[in-house]
Amino acid sequence: MSYTEDSVFQTIQQIRIPSAVEKAVADAWSKWSGKQPQSVRIKLGLTNYKPFERARVMAEATIAPGGSNQATITLNLFFQIFAKAETALKEAGNGYSQNFFPCNGPPIFLIPDWHTVVWTLPNAPNMRELAQLLDPEHFCNLLVPPDELKGMNEADYPTPKLFRYVPLKRSLLTWEHPTTHSRYFAKLINEDDAECVIRNFQIVDEVAKRDRLKFDVPQIVSYNPTIRTVLMTEVSGTQFTEIMRRALPETFAQVGEVLGQLHYLNLDPKPVWTPQKELKILSRHLKGAKLALPQLSSRIEGAIAKLKNLSKQFSFPQNQPIHGNLFGDQIHYNSNRIGIVDWDMLSAGDSLYDIGRLIAHLIYLAGREEISPSAVSACVEALLRSYEAETNRAIERSRLVWHIATQVLLRGKISSLRKLPEGWQTHLSFVVTECEKLLDGKSDYLSLPALKYGVLSEV
């Protein structure tokens, strides 16, 4: 079996056909309002695909109700797709039993033929505090300091905008001050993660106030534990993913200097990164890849087995502060100043984990977008030289290869299988091949050591 026989994948493909999904939403709107809408337009957002189990798809629906005097309505929709019809029916039944928040569309509806439950935010499960955050008055009274609200009437409070919604985990909203036009971000965190995530942001905020940093971080404006939401300043700049595509060594040298300072800051995060945890995460995430593309299954298993064996011969530090989720989107680039955001996964661990994760993202982009191997190699060398100059310590490049190879595989799950861009099957095949090449010292992109269990070849 492969993804072509997976009902979950087939439903995702249906949702990606504008006429099909727009008809499904229009039918639900008609049943809810009693009137056929004049038009429905769907803009798809994030997809999270778990083969033969489930998928989650975010979408924005713009609906023009019948009648010339009615303004268009925008709805944020969360599609929950299940492999089994009975699971979808049970989830819908649980949803219908809830007390719904006011919204401008059907709070929940079932698409039986697709085994799909659709929620209209803020009525999605697990993060019901979102209802308060989307209301301007509640948002301001709960999070915005009184001094910032002076001279404003409650009727004139700016409306927060939903920036990103990660089902069942977190929400990110933006809010713009009407006078200063300063932009803020509010992050709502689920109950399981809130304590650790907030502590991480507070640690980073404190060190930024105490030390002279070579990079910017979000500054905490307020935290409301009742709704598990932190309000932060915006970190300006272009996401480094866009800069990476240009393969400019000087930009990577700037990032290397910043990471060198980060990894030697006096921070004390509670979570601890270990290679065992990382391999467990990798194995879990790539189960779906093996199901979707069974022709890669034995190669994925072989690569993970080799990584497990190799991990036994390294001494991985577990006491250095690491970002824990570093890739291009988390770095905001200005020519004279760099910012780093999203500190949810701040941990103590091996600094080469962050570096390996960023290099793996660059290699993934290079494979997808045909960036030349020589350009990638020049950027990586600029990054490493700058990092070594900042820390005054040589990087153990054999250990770095282990991190890059591990993170190349994981990047395939994050950017290919989860998001399903065009050509995702080829992208997954590329990361498996690149992992194998990295471990054998044959990557076209890097001049780094080959790794053999029991022997480190420094070629």
Structure description:
By secondary structure, the chain is of the alpha+beta class. It has 3 domains: 3-120; 130-233, Phosphorylase Kinase, domain 1 (2-Layer Sandwich); 238-457, Aminoglycoside 3'-phosphotransferase, Chain: A, domain 2. The chain contains 15 helices and 18 strands. It has helices spanning 7-15, 18-33, 85-96, 130-133, 136-143, 146-149, 191-210, 240-244, 249-262, 275-292, 297-311, 351-369, 373-391, 397-417, 424-439, and strands spanning 39-50, 54-64, 73-82, 108-111, 116-120, 161-166, 170-176, 183-189, 215-216, 220-224, 229-233, 238-239, 320-322, 331-333, 338-340, 347-349, 450-452, 455-457. The protein has a 5-stranded antiparallel β-sheet. A 5-stranded antiparallel β-sheet has the order 6-7-8-11-10. α10 (275-292) runs parallel beside α14 (397-417), α12 packs across α14 (397-417) and α14 (397-417) runs antiparallel to α15 (424-439). It is globular and about 65 Å long. Residues 455-459 have low confidence and may be disordered.
